[in-house]
Amino acid sequence: MESLTFGPLSTLPSLVEELNPHKVAFLTNMTVERLWLKKAFSGIENPIKIVIPDGEEYKSLETTMAIWKRLQEEGFTRKSLLIGLGGGVVTDIAGFVASTYMRGTLLGLVPTTLLAQVDAAIGGKTGVNFNGKNMIGTFYLPNFVLIAHETLSTLPDEEIRNGLGEVAKYALLDKKIYALIRNFKGIDEAIIRECALFKAEVVEKDPEERGLRRILNLGHTTGHAIEKLSNYRIKHGLAVSMGLMVASKVGEELYGFDSGKTEELLEKLGLPTKHPFGADEILREMALDKKAWYGKIVFVAPVEIGDVVVEEVAEEVLKRALEATSYDSGSGDSQKPEGSA
User: Fold this and answer.
1) In terms of domains, do 250 and 269 share one?
2) 132: left (phi over 0), alpha (psi -120 to 50) or beta
3) pLDDT (tens digit, 9 = 90+) per residue, 177-187?
4) For the chain, how many helices (H) and strands (E)?
5) What is the pLDDT of residue 72?
6) Does the pLDDT at position 96 exceed 60?
7) Nearest-10 crossing angle of helices 279-287, 315-324
8) Same domain for 315 and 255?
9) What does the longest C-alpha to C-alpha distance in the chain come to?
């Protein structure tokens, strides 16, 4: 299984020491630099600091090239260690850089957001955006992932909510996590651990997404389309939440799934259950998704809690599900996300 460590940031020097790297570089963003970089540096000899601006728009090839250039200037080698300290944008870029620089360097990830701790930093997917979400990327497992619960103490409520979109996905995929969320009082270490371990176990069985791992895309085909249509103003976890509701409506029509369970779950977590776009425009974006194998939309739909199917779904079925979960469907939703159309 992927090397996951659950513990405080003070655990980091021992993880680094085990790898005996030639050099150590930290990649982070401006917000995390201010909050956590000094503590992360503690006990690590002569670390290199690379800071990028905050935001999904900086998850780009331009940013990647600037990091490659800096690593070259610092004499970084294949035996050097790049540590991504931050949320999903940082961990995705760090993984992509590490996998491509000199055909692969050592990589460590220290996710500092809920979304990254339960999902983005786990599983070895790397990527940057290129005319779509994560269209350029690799599979590259990190040497370690340190999940330090303490970093959530400085996370804004909106980012906790963002991460809960992925937590909701795991609740639909796993009965044990669903039971935890049914009694949800707030995010805690037990929920984070169960989500992270669930993903790691799936990835271990299917590291390159040839079969089983595709279940982890539940809510994502629609979610990525919504993100792109909103110019990424709708955060990933909120878009996934909307996508989960669409998937549940598909599951209801095809397999008799009770979509009310998903709606209840999302509302309990304070997540949106409707999307702000037209069915046709979402379908156009879904057709461009990297998971559309052979040019057809491959979709993950729930059959029951803990059981999903991955298959091609007819466009008319998707369209009905998208229309039923749109704000224009006539059943208002108080959870309309900020920044949506």
Assistant:
1) yes
2) left
3) 999 998 899 99
4) 14, 8
5) 97
6) yes
7) 130
8) yes
9) 60
Number of domains forming the structure of the chain = 2
List strands edge to edge, sheet with 81-86. 4-6, 144-147, 106-111, 81-86, 24-29, 48-52
pLDDT cut 70: percent of the chain above it: 94
Residue 333, pLDDT > 50, answer: no
341, part of any domain: no
pTM of the predicted model, to two decimals?
0.90
The residue count of the chain comes to 341
Average pLDDT over residues 48-56: 94
184 and 263 co-located in one domain: yes
pLDDT greater than 90 at residue 133: no
Euclidean distance between CA atoms 132 and 33, whole angstroms: 28
End-to-end, the C-alpha distance of the chain in Å comes to 41
Rounded CA separation 117/124 (Å): 13
Quote the domain boundaries for residue 40: 4-154
Which positions are annotated as active-site residues?
103, 125, 166, 199, 209, 213, 217, 220, 224, 236
Strand duo 307-312 + 298-304: pairing: antiparallel
Residue at a domain's end among 98, 123, 154 = 154
